[in-house]
Design brief:
Helix content is 70%, strand content 0%. The chain is built from 9 helices and no strands.
Length: 213
């Protein structure tokens, strides 16, 4: 998205010179805006839900996106100023954001890591019969969540250009999100079923009237 926007806004489509984006001031500012935008909107959604519902869980969820914004900004700055100080800042902010996100993924969104569950460290109600799939999914989500390490360590793979590798890592995030969504929907469905298990009917948001009256 950064390169596409810069391609048109900086006039690179006229010269077809990729260096224009890398060195242009507009590109450097645009990188922060595009990196922050998704986290900012989700944080504002959480803030609005907290305002409407007064549920502090939404504030905690907002903190997750704020920490992700700080980590993303630090990584962008480190890519331009690769000093030891910025590397330390990136490691600290990214580690905090990753631990925060993993906790929210596993405990809040997936409803796992219940020490008292009949399924060790999962939850009592599971849709999939093979519980090993859940353990494998936890490991997969953990690995995909720490893909940011490559942006700091800059592993030299030789066969791949850096921009191609960045595209590949971004694609992994799309895959992780789709994988995360399955267990998020599963947990939400089971939670909703559990909430209405003790009642005969869900109350309607309006008063029923007698049709004969």
């Amino acid at each position: 998205m950064e390169s596409t926007a810069c391609y048109f806004l900086a006039g690179s489509f006229k010269t077809h010179r990729y260096e224009t984006c890398n060195s242009g001031k507009l590109y450097r500012e645009l990188a922060y805006v595009i990196s922050f935008a998704p986290y900012y909107w989700r944080a504002m959604q959480c803030a609005r839900r907290w305002f409407d519902e007064c549920d502090t869980n939404h504030l905690a969820n907002m903190g997750k996106y704020v920490s992700a914004m700080v980590a993303a900004g630090a990584r962008i700055t480190y890519a331009r100023e690769p000093t030891q100080l910025w590397m330390l800042i990136v490691l600290v902010t990214s580690l905090v954001a990753t631990v925060y996100q993993l906790y929210w993924d596993f405990v809040k969104d997936w409803g796992l890591f219940n020490p008292n569950s009949k399924n060790p460290w999962l939850r009592d109600d599971l849709i999939l019969k093979n519980i090993n799939i859940y353990y494998a999914s936890i490991a997969l989500n953990l690995v995909l969540r720490v893909a940011w390490v490559e942006t700091v360590m800059r592993f030299n793979l030789g066969l791949f250009e850096s921009r191609l590798l960045e595209f590949f890592l971004a694609s992994l995030e799309v895959i992780r999100r789709g994988h995360w969504n399955f267990y998020r929907v599963e947990n939400e469905h089971l939670t909703n079923v559990g909430k209405f298990r003790a009642v005969k009917a869900v109350p309607l948001p309006f008063r029923e009237t007698d049709s004969d009256g």
